[in-house]
Amino acid sequence: MAEKDLEKFISAAKRKRGANWSTEEEIILIEEVLKFENRLFGKMKGAGVKGKHGKIKEETWQSITDTLNSQFRNGRTSESLSKKYDNIKQRAKDKIDGIRRPKTGGGPPPAPLTQAEEALYQAMDTRPNIVGLVGGIDSDEPLACAADSLSSTVVENDMCVEACASGDASNSHTDRRSTEKKKKKKVAIREILEELEIENLKLENEKLAQEMKKLMLEQKKLETEEKKLQSELEFVEMKKSYMICKFNAEFPECLLNPTCT
Q: Are residues 32 and 64 in contact, defined by beta-carbon separation less than 8 angstroms?
């Protein structure tokens, strides 16, 4: 009996821990959460809204869980999905803060964003809560993170000007990249149009060449028919002269008698 209980305990622990997350699974989690973020994180007003909002959030997380489990069959729970999303969000914030406010005195470069973190950052890049208000508290973070945020308020206030400048530089860089992408897109479209125009000209030239060839063949045919007709006329004239000579030889009196027919 003890061995069976131990096996059940180990099996339950394995199910609780779950399988490792793949990159594709993380990205789909981010996409699904962003799709329903108003229901998950939006504020609701009115009487009895607290319990209703909690139920909506619970149902939404369960719907996302069902979506992921139907695709990957890893037996995830809504609690594990919520925790995983919070972890990805926190890691993305930490890495972005490290990129925008690099540490002084050297040290290793900031770790690059994973594909899931990059997807979350791209979706929330224009929103203020991706970096967070200086000294503010993110209600989605654990209490320990909120306490750390409060304890570092003074230091972060001193870095406000630098962070704003870095943010402006980042926005400028983003705008420049967007402009460059638009220019590249216009150039690509122009090149495609030019290629199509060249292709149309080639087709027109081929069509004209075929028409000219057809006209030349018809001209040669007409010339051949004209030569044939000329030969036939010459033959008729020769035959006519022969018949006249023959007639005169056989009936010489007709030459002297104009009434001879």
A: yes
What is the Cα–Cα distance from 67 to 61, expressed in whole angstroms?
10
Map out the domains of the chain as residue ranges. Answer: 12-133
Q: Could you give the C-alpha distances from 21 to 27, 69, 123, in angstroms and in order? A: 10, 12, 21
pTM greater than 0.85 = no
The Cα 84–Cα 199 span in angstroms is 53
* CA dist., res. 86 & res. 80, Å (int): 10
Rounded Cα gap, residues 140 and 149, in angstroms:
13
Instruction: Render pLDDT for 197-224 as a digit per residue (tens, 0 to 9).
Output: 898 899 999 999 999 999 999 999 999 9
Query: What radius of gyration do the chain's Cα atoms show?
Result: 46
> What contacts 49, CB < 8 A, 6 or more positions away?
none
DSSP string covering 95-125? HHHHHHSPPSS--PPPPPPPHHHHHHHHHHT
CA distance 7 to 248: 137
Q: Spell 129-166 as b/e; 16+ CB within 10 A means b.
A: ebbbebeeebeebeeeeeeebeeeeeebeeeeeeeeeb
Cβ contacts of residue 246 below 8 Å, gap of 6+? none
Q: pLDDT tens, 12-58? A: 555 556 689 999 999 999 999 999 999 998 876 666 666 788 899 99
Distance linking the first and last C-alpha atoms of the chain: 145
